Amino acid sequence: MSQEHSEAETVLNSIYSDLSYSSLPSLKIETETPTVTELSIGFQYFQALLRSNYRESLTGEVSVVDIPYQLFVDVVGFLYTDMIPTSYCTTSGFESLCLMCEIANHYSSENLLTYCERLIIARLDLCNAMSL
Asked: Where is the BTB domain (predicted)?
């Protein structure tokens, strides 16, 4: 394992430790963490949310209720690496890739949206085109 890969893995592990679920199906993130800083840089939605007088900026906690946990972890990983796990590039990962594309659109991340769109176009065939 290269030193760069090891350093990236260390950073990602610290990011993932910022993410936690409450007993409800929502993700809660403290706003004073590197994850939220990256989210506000990578997603216009979070930037607007945290630079306003919304509850999240006042309470210091962001709740994300519309994204499965692992998918959100992968989205945050993309913000640091500009890559998504290879499982999204398989036939079985096509549905998750489409969901990630929807999330990128919903939360206004141009880089992630473009990345996902390119992968979807490259993997589009007769079988999965009907699901779009």
From this structure: 39-88
3-129, which class in CATH?
A: alpha beta
Reported confidence tier of residue 97, pLDDT bands at 50, 70, 90? very high
Burial of 42 (0-12, 13-18, 19+ CB in 10 A): buried
Q: Record the tokens describing residue 72, joined without a space.
A: 């959100």
* Global confidence as pTM: 0.68
Residue from 58, 88, 91 nearest 70 by CA: 88
Please tell me the predicted confidence (pLDDT) of residue 19: 57
Burial tier of 80 (Cβ tally within 10 Å: 0-12, 13-18, 19+): middle
Q: What is the pLDDT of residue 33?
A: 66
User: CB of 101 within 8 A of CB of 79?
Assistant: no
Indicate if the alpha-carbon torsion angle 97, 103, 104, 109 is positive or negative.
negative
* Paired tokens of 119: 């992968």
3-state secondary structure of 62: strand
